[in-house]
Specification:
By secondary structure, the chain is α+β, with helices and mostly antiparallel strands. It is about 45% helix and about 25% strand.
C-alpha cells in the first residue's frame, strides 16, 4: 500500500484554515456568537431586575394604601364607646368616608360586641341598633390579632353583585373595652396604583389575591367580570409559573400573548403583584442585534465563498480524476489506477484510492473462488478450503465423527395436500431455522433432501468435543423447529420433527464427478444415525450408546431399551435425550408419524 509522506506545510486543510477561518469566518462566528450569548443573557438579567423592581414598588405602594386605611380606622377605636360621645363618633365616621373614598361602609362595634353605628355609601345609615356582632369573623379576627399599636384583620376578597371586588378590614382598639371598627373597602381604587406602572411601551401590572382572583388590573372590565372569568384564570396560571421559577418566568397573559412576568407579595393581605411585558417587545433589542450580526456574518460568508471558489478551481482536475476513478471502480474495473501529482490531502487520497482498488480486486477474486466452491460444497467447507488455500482437506480420510439426521413428520401427507407455494414456504422457514443452529455449533451441513438433512460434527472442520457438541446441536435443532411447529399447527398443518444422532468412525471426503462433487461421510455410523432418525417420533431425539456416554457434559439421556434396526444383526441400544421436550421424554420410543 502506498503511504506518501505527510508534509504539514503543504496540507490542503491548513490552506483552508489559514485563508478562510483566520481571515474571515472564524472571527466573525466567534464574535457573533459571543455577542449574541452575552447580549441575550445581559438583556434578560436587566429585564428580570426591572420587572422585579417594578413589582416590589407596586407592592410597597399597595401596602401603603392598605396601611393608610388601617391607620384611619385605628383613630375610630381610640376611646371606649359612651352614649355621650355617640354624636361625635357619628361625625367622625362621616368625615372618614369623605376623606377615604375607598371605604364603602363603616361599622363601629363597642367593647361588648354590639353594633353602635353604621354609615354607608350604598345603603341607609344606622345608629344604636345594638345587634350582636361578636360572632362576625371580622370582629372576632380583629380581637384575636396579635397585640400591638393597632390590631387588624383582613378578610378575603369578595365581589359585590358578582363583579366589583371588595375586602373587609377590621381594626380593634388597644383594649377590649374600646371596640372594633369594621370597614368594607372598594378595591377598584387600587387600579390607580396599577395603571401607573409601565414597563416598556405595553408592559402592565395586575394584582391577584391568594386563591388567584383578580383584584386590580389596568383594564377594569377584567376585574368586573368576576373570579370565574377565563382571563383571570390565565393570569393566575402566569403567577403560578413565576412562583415555580423563583420570581420571574415566561408565560401567557389574558390575551394569549407570550410575556415575561415578575412577582412580589403584599404583606398582610396575601396578595401578589405581577408585572409583565410582552416577550416580543422584551426581546426586540436582542432580535435587532442578532439581525445585525447575521448581516455581518452573511457578508463574511460571501467573501469566504469567493475565496473558496478560487481555490476550488485549482482542485477541479484532481477531483475529476477521483470521480472518474470511482465510477470505473464501481463498474468493476478494479485494475484502474489514478495519478495525482500532489503532496497534500488529494495526493494521499489518490494513494489510498489505489490501495483500495487493489484490495477490492483481491477481495473479488476471493469471493469468486469461494462462490465456485459453494456451488458444490457446504459453506463451512468452502470457507475452510479458502482459509487453507488448498482443497487437500477434502481428500478422503478416516475420522471419528458425530452424524446428526433430522426430518419432518407428516410431511408426505402435507406436501400432497398443500399448495406448492405453501410447501416451499414451510421448507424455507424450516431449513433457515436449522441452518442457523448448525452453523452456530460449527457443524457442516453436508446434504439435505426434501424435508430431511444430514449434518457432520468434527469433519472437515475439527471440533474439540464432537459428542457433546452433537447432542447440543440436536437439542437446539428441536428448539428451533418447536415454535415453527406451533405456528404450522395453528394454520392446520400437522407437522412434527424428529432427530437421530450417532457417533463413530467414518470415511469422510469428496465424492462426485467432474464439475460436481459433494463432501460427505460413509460408514455404519451414518446408517445408524439415519435409522435412529427414522425411528424418532415428533419432538424426539434418539442417540446411540456412544453419544449417550458423551451426554453427561451436555444434557441428560434416558435409556429406551434395545430395538431392531434394518441392517443390524442384533438389536441396538437406543437412548432418548431429555432436553428435547417434556412430552417426548415421557413418551419413550414411539413410531414416527406417517410420512
Amino acid at each position: 500500500m502506498v503511504r506518501p509522506a505527510l508534509d504539514p506545510r503543504r496540507s490542503l486543510f491548513a490552506k483552508y484554515c489559514v485563508v478562510l477561518f483566520s481571515a474571515v469566518a472564524l472571527p466573525l462566528f466567534a464574535n457573533g456568537g459571543l455577542e449574541a450569548w452575552f447580549g441575550t443573557r445581559d438583556r434578560r438579567d436587566q429585564l428580570d431586575a426591572l420587572l422585579g423592581l417594578e413589582a416590589r414598588d407596586a407592592a410597597f405602594r399597595i401596602q401603603g394604601f392598605i396601611d393608610t386605611i388601617r391607620g384611619q380606622l385605628g383613630w375610630m377605636v381610640q376611646l371606649p364607646w359612651t352614649p355621650a360621645a355617640e354624636e361625635s363618633q357619628r361625625l367622625d365616621a362621616l368625615r372618614l368616608l369623605r376623606q377615604v373614598p375607598a371605604i364603602a361602609q363603616l361599622t363601629l362595634v363597642d367593647g361588648e360586641g354590639r353594633e353602635r353605628l353604621q354609615v354607608s355609601r350604598v345603603s341607609l345609615n344606622r345608629a344604636g341598633s345594638g345587634a350582636d356582632r361578636s360572632g362576625d369573623p371580622a370582629v372576632a379576627g380583629a380581637r384575636k390579632a396579635p397585640a400591638g399599636a393597632t390590631r387588624a384583620w383582613y378578610g378575603p376578597v369578595t365581589y359585590h353583585r358578582g363583579s366589583e371586588p371588595f375586602m373587609t378590614v377590621a381594626v380593634a382598639g388597644t383594649s377590649a373595652s374600646v371596640g372594633v371598627a369594621v370597614a368594607e373597602i372598594n378595591l377598584k381604587l387600587i387600579r390607580e396604583v396599577i395603571s401607573g406602572i409601565r414597563v416598556g411601551e405595553t408592559g402592565q401590572a395586575f394584582v391577584l389575591d391568594g386563591p388567584g382572583r383578580l383584584v386590580a388590573h389596568p383594564d377594569l372590565s377584567l376585574v368586573l367580570r368576576g373570579a370565574d372569568d377565563p382571563a383571570a384564570r390565565a393570569l393566575a396560571a402566569l403567577r403560578a409559573e413565576a412562583r415555580v421559577a423563583g420570581g420571574t418566568a415566561t408565560g401567557r397573559d389574558s390575551l394569549g400573548r407570550r410575556v415575561i412576568a415578575a412577582t412580589a407579595t403584599v404583606p398582610g393581605v396575601d396578595w401578589t403583584v405581577v408585572v409583565m411585558q410582552p416577550l416580543a417587545e422584551a426581546v426586540a433589542p436582542i432580535v435587532r442585534a442578532l439581525l445585525r450580526i447575521g448581516a455581518l456574518i452573511l457578508l463574511g460568508l460571501l467573501f469566504a465563498a469567493a475565496l473558496a471558489y478560487g481555490l476550488a478551481r485549482r482542485m477541479t482536475g484532481p477531483i475529476r480524476l477521483l470521480e472518474e476513478g470511482t465510477q470505473r471502480i464501481g463498474a468493476g474495473e478494479f485494475g484502474h489506477r489514478i495519478a495525482v501529482a500532489s503532496a497534500d490531502e488529494l495526493g494521499r487520497l489518490a494513494a489510498r484510492f489505489n490501495a483500495m482498488a487493489r484490495d477490492l480486486a483481491l477481495s473479488q477474486e476471493r469471493e469468486e473462488r469461494i462462490g465456485r466452491l459453494r456451488r458444490f460444497l457446504a459453506p463451512q467447507v468452502a470457507e475452510l478450503v479458502d482459509r487453507c488455500g488448498d482443497d487437500g482437506v477434502l481428500d478422503g480420510r478416516r475420522v471419528e465423527v458425530a452424524v446428526v439426521f433430522g426430518d419432518l413428520r407428516g410431511f408426505t401427507a402435507f406436501s400432497a395436500a398443500a399448495a406448492p407455494e405453501t410447501v416451499i414456504e414451510v421448507l424455507g422457514e424450516y431449513f433457515a431455522a436449522l441452518g442457523g443452529a448448525i452453523t452456530a455449533h460449527g457443524a457442516t451441513l453436508v446434504t439435505f433432501t426434501g424435508d430431511g438433512l444430514m449434518a457432520l460434527v468434527n469433519a472437515p472442520v475439527p471440533v474439540s468435543d464432537p459428542g457433546p457438541t452433537a447432542i447440543r446441536l440436536a437439542v437446539d435443532m428441536q428448539a428451533a423447529v418447536r415454535p415453527l411447529a406451533a405456528a404450522w399447527d395453528a394454520r392446520g398443518f400437522r407437522l412434527g420433527f424428529g432427530v437421530g444422532a450417532a457417533m463413530g468412525p467414518a470415511t469422510v471426503g469428496r465424492i462426485g464427478c467432474e464439475g460436481r462433487s459433494d463432501y460427505t461421510a460413509i460408514g455404519p455410523v451414518v446408517n445408524l444415525a439415519a435409522r435412529l432418525c427414522a425411528a424418532a417420533g415428533d419432538a424426539q431425539i434418539l442417540v446411540d450408546a456412544t453419544l449417550a456416554e458423551a451426554a453427561p457434559g451436555a444434557c441428560t439421556v434416558t435409556p429406551l431399551g434395545t430395538v431392531p434396526l434394518k441392517g443390524w444383526a442384533r438389536e441396538v441400544p437406543v437412548f432418548g435425550v431429555d432436553g428435547a421436550s417434556p412430552a417426548a421424554s415421557e413418551r419413550g420410543l414411539a413410531a414416527p408419524l406417517t410420512r
